[in-house]
Amino acid sequence: MKRFVVILLFASFIFGSIDLFAWGQKGHAIVAYIAEKHLTRKAHKKLDAILEGKSLVYYASWMDNIQNSPYFRGGYDRTYTWHYFNVDEGFTPQTMKRNPNGDVLSALNMVIDSLENHQDELSDSVRIDYVRMLIHLVGDMHCPMHAGRSVDKGGNGVPIKWFKYNTNLHVLWDSKLVESVHEWSYTEWQQNIDRCSKSEIKEMSAGTPEDWFTETWKIAVGVYEYTKPNEYYSYKYMYDYAPVVEHQFLVAGYRLAALLNRIFG
Ligand SMILES: [Zn+2]
Q: What is the pLDDT, as a whole number, of residue 77?
């Protein structure tokens, strides 16, 4: 029994630390798969070579996984803060003091600039890393609690009850809400939400990473107003926010494809 408790504690530590970082694996896979469906043939071919035959989905959560892998520990410490950009109450993304170690917006802009303007100067290993980061960071940037407040660590410090689970606001938005909205695989998510016309896709893909992050932050502001600490939430919350979750996956997928087509297409 004691050993079982120790294992449980260890598991909650591991999974708890994963939860700190991102849309769950499902969310990242959905975004990457939608993007893959909208790559030009040329971009697809180039990415296939860079990613050594692996798909975008295959590497969608790589950036989270390296933080928990004993094989990479230490090698990617500088990326620890790159998954989010906390914006406190009373500030906007434009007025909030930036983390000198980097945030999701500065990291994404750095990766885009390197791949777009300095690709010839990158070694093969850095180039594959930057492509894997690009896939992941576009996903994280569209996850509302990755634009949450620093005082509660992006919602990690806001306890709530979700159906029968005790959880927190960050974990709710990273995974529990996604899983509750539809019990679909990532391919089913794509089949059921990726149904926009060419002109709609073009419109949704417009703008800059800063515009996209600002949209996400505005959603986060609304989520903080709606969600009170220690409250119980279930179906109403799910129905109110299902369209937001679907929209964020869709625009993230289209925007990721647009970036990759611009760089590699
Ligand atoms: Zn992440």
A: 86
Ligand 1: distance of its center to the CA of 24 in Å?
A: 8
Q: Tell me what pLDDT residue 74 has.
A: 65
Question: What integer pLDDT is reported at residue 237 of this predicted model?
Answer: 98
Measured in Å, residue 1 CA sits from the centre of ligand 1 at 34
Architecture in CATH of 21-264: Orthogonal Bundle (1.10)
pLDDT attached to residue 108: 98
Contacts of 136 (CB under 8 A, 6+ apart): 22, 28, 59, 60, 61, 62, 63, 64, 83
Instruction: Count the alpha carbons within 13 Å of 64 in the hemisphere toward its beta carbon.
Output: 27
**pLDDT tens across 56-105, in order?**
999 999 999 888 777 766 678 889 999 999 999 999 999 999 999 999 99
**Helix or strand or coil: residue 67?**
helix
Ligand 1 center from residue 27 Cα (angstroms): 11
Greatest C-alpha distance within the chain:
59
Would you say the C-alpha torsion 96, 211, 240, 254 has a positive or negative sign? negative
Q: What's the pTM value of the predicted model, to 2 decimals?
A: 0.91
Q: Which residues surround ligand 1, an ion (CB under 5 A)?
A: 21-22, 64, 83, 140
* Helix, strand or coil, per DSSP, at residue 100: coil
Please provide residue 230's backbone torsions phi and psi, each rounded to the nearest 5 degrees.
65, 10
